[in-house]
Amino acid sequence: xxxxxxxxxxxxxxxxxxxxxxxxxxxxxxxxxxxxxxxxxxxxxxxxxxxxxxxxxxxxxxxxxxxxxxxxxxxxxxxxxxxxxxxxxxxxxxxxxxxxxxxxxxxxxxxxxxxxxxxxxxxxxxxxxxxxxxxxxxxxxxxxxxxxxxxxxxxxxxxxxxxxxxxxxxxxxxxxxxxxxxxxxxxxxxxxxxxxxxxxxxxxxxxxxxxxxxxxxxxxxxxxxxxxxxxxxxxxxxxxxxxxxxxxxxxxxxxxxxxxxxxxxxxxxxxxxxxxxxxxxxxxxxxxxxxxxxxxxxxxxxxxxxxxxxxxxxxxxxxxxxxxxxxxxxxxxxxxxxxxxxxxxxxxxxxxxxxxxxxxxxxxxxxxxxxxxxxxxxxxxxxxxxxxxxxxxxxxxxxxxxxxxxxxxxxxxxxxxxxxxxxxxxxxxxxxxxxxxxxxxxxxxxxxxxxxxxxxxxxxxxxxxxxxxxxxxxxxxxxxxxxxxxxxxxxxxxxxxxxxxxxxxxxxxxxxxxxxxxxxxxxxxxxxxxxxxxxxxxxxxxxxxxxxxxxxxxxxxxxxxxxxxxxxxxxxxxxxxxxxxxxxxxxxxxxxxxxxxxxxxxxxxxxxxxxxxxxxxxxx
Length: 620
Known about the structure:
InterPro entries: ABC1_TM_dom (IPR011527), ABC1_TM_sf (IPR036640), ABC_transporter-like_ATP-bd (IPR003439), ABC_transporter-like_CS (IPR017871), P-loop_NTPase (IPR027417), Type_1_exporter (IPR039421). The protein is about 65% helix and about 5% strand. By secondary structure, the chain is α/β, with parallel strands linked by helices.
C-alpha cells in the first residue's frame, strides 16, 4: 500500500480485544511495508557498520605503506557512503509510508465505527475521548508502526556486527559481543516505571482534551449562565496535572537516555584499555584496534533505536488501548442484518411507548421531558432500548435489517445537528433518493435569507451553492444553522423522517412557513416531529402525547388543547396554579374554547417576538 492508494478499499476487521492485540493486528496488515523498510534499513545500517572496517583497513594500509590497498579502501568507503545515503533515503520513505498508511487505516476504522454507531457513540464514549483517539492516539500508533521496522533493522545489524567482530578479532570481539546485549537490555528494568508514567500522562492528557472539547462545545451556554470562568479554572488545573505528569515521564526517559550514553562509554573504555594492551603485546595490529574502536563507537547509533522502540511502545500501548475500546463498541443489539437488504414500508411503531406513526402522514410527538424525547427519537432511528426492544417498521424490526437499509428507511435529525465546513453544495451532497432537489429542500426550510448571508460572506461565490460554510456554521445564527440542517435532511428524502425540535431557534413567522413547506414537501411520506410548538402541532395530521414513557393521548392539536390538561400544560407552559384558576373561572369540567385558542394564539405571538429578538441579537 502506497500513500497515493489511500484510502483503503477495505481497512479490515480489527482485533480490538486489547491494545497489544490491536497493535499486532495492525502490524500483520503492514507486513509488506515492514519488510520493505527492513530491507532498506539493513542496507543503511550495514553500510554504517562497514565504515569502521574501511577505516581500519585504511589505517593499516598507511602503516604498511600500501597505496593499492589504500585506494581499494577508499573505493569501499565511497561505496559505503552511497549505501548510507540511498539506504537512509529509502528507509525514511518506507518508514513514513508505514506511519501514514497505519494511521490512515486506524482513522478509517474509527470513521466506519462512528458512522455505524451514530449518536450512540458519544453516549457510550465521551466526545473528547473520540477526538483524542482520532488525533493524538492515531499519531502515537503510527509512530510505533514506523519505528518497528527501523528497530528490526538495527537489531539485525547489531547481531551481524557482533558476529563479524568475533570472527575478525576474537580477543576484542568477544568483549563487544558480551557487552552489547548488556547495553540493549540494561534499560529493561526502567521500562515498566516509564510505561506507567507514560500511561498516566496519556490519561491526564485525554482528560484535559475531553474537558476542552466539552467546554468549547458548550461555550455559548457557559457564557450565558456565567460558568465560563469555572470551567476555565477546571481546565487550568487539568492542564497543570498534564504538565506535572509529562515532567515526571520525561525524567524517567532522560534517565534511560543517560544509561544509553553511559554504558556504551564504559564499553568503549574497556575495549580501548584491553586493545592497547593487545597491540602493545603485538597480538593485534593498529588497524584492527582502530576497526574495533570505531565499530563500538558507531554501534551507539543503531542502539539508539532500542530506546526509540521502547518509548514508542510505551506511548502507543495506551493509545492502542483507547482505540481498541472505541472499535470494540457495537450496536446494543446487532443481529448483523438477518433479513434482506430490501427497505420495508408501512407504519412506524415503538413497542416501548406504544407510539404509532401511520405511513404517509405527519405525526407530531409532544413529550414534557426533553431527554426522554431524545431517547425516543434515537430509538425510532434504530437504536434499541436498554431492554433490547426494537422499533417496528411495517412490522419488521429495524435491528433485523442491514445497517445501510435501516438508515435508508429512517433518518433522525437530532436537536443539535452539526454542519460540516465546506460549500453549501457539499453540505447538501448527501445520499438521497433523488426525489427532492436541493432548491426544493432549501425553499421548504425557508433558507432564502441564509443563502443571502452566505453569498455576502463569500465574496468570490457568485452561485449561493458555492458559498462557504465555516466550521460548525459558527458564522450563522442558531436559526439559520437549524434551517440548513433541516434542508439537508429533506434532501435525503427517506421513507421515514424523524425531526427532533427542528424549529426551536426559529421565529414564529418563519416557523409557520416551514411547517407549510415541510408538510407539502413530505406529502405522502412518513414524518415524525418532536415539538411543543403550537404552529407545528397545528399542521400535523396526528398528535401524540407521551407522558412518563408511554402514550397518554392521541388526536389533533386543537382537540388535545381542550380536553387534555397534561398536553395543554406542555404546549401552553401553563402552571398548576394557572390551570386551577382557569378551571375555577370556567366551571367544573368545562373549558372555554375561544379563551383557550386565544391563549394559544397569544402564546404564539409572544414566543415569536422573543424568538425574533433572540435571532436578531445572535446574528448581530
